[in-house]
Prior knowledge:
Layout: H1 2-14, H2 27-36, E1 44-46, E2 49-51, E3 58-63, E4 66-71, E5 74-80, H3 82-86, E6 101-107, E7 110-119, E8 122-129, E9 132-138, H4 143-155, E10 158-159, H5 161-168
Antiparallel strand pairs: 1-2, 2-10, 3-4, 4-5, 5-9, 6-7, 7-8, 8-9
Amino acid sequence: MKKIIIMLLTVFIFTGCTIVRIDTDNIDTIINVVLSKDNTLYNTVGKGYKYYRPRGVNYIDTTEYNEKLYSNGYYYYLYVDINSYYYKKEFSYKENPDAYYSKYLEINDKFGYVEINKFKGLYLIEFVYNYAKIEALVEEEDINQTILDATYILSTIKYNSNVIKIMLNEDYFTTKEERYDIFTPKGNVNSDNEIKYDQG
Length: 200
């Protein structure tokens, strides 16, 4: 019995399991810890992109490249800018000293910002990163959880350049329309067009 316990402990120690505890009391820590990781998880697929939706964040609806999500009584609005991604549009942001929180982000060769402003007794969170944006309007005590959810979503967005190229090609979905009326009799069928049935 002792050998089994020692073996299990040895396996557990040498498997390299690591748990990263995120201090959710500090917005800067949440952002830096999550964005600095190379997250490859995904469980949601959109038009030309995929991402990880954390537990407790539910999918509601999609309009074009935008998604409406729901968590803990709040709606999150995810906007994905495939044009800027495809054409590698330059990004700039100037930190706002009048905001509740404002920070420019440049992590893992991706750019963005977080700005939080008080709005009608609530807090409007605008989180832009990796050519995507999440907006949410939340109570002050729920800011950190919302930032944590948004950070996971935005850090895991992976784009499919081939699909995006096809979607952005104007001629790809253009079709030639022809009118067919299958309900009007065609009259005499030409003998060359008759279907031959061989019973043999």
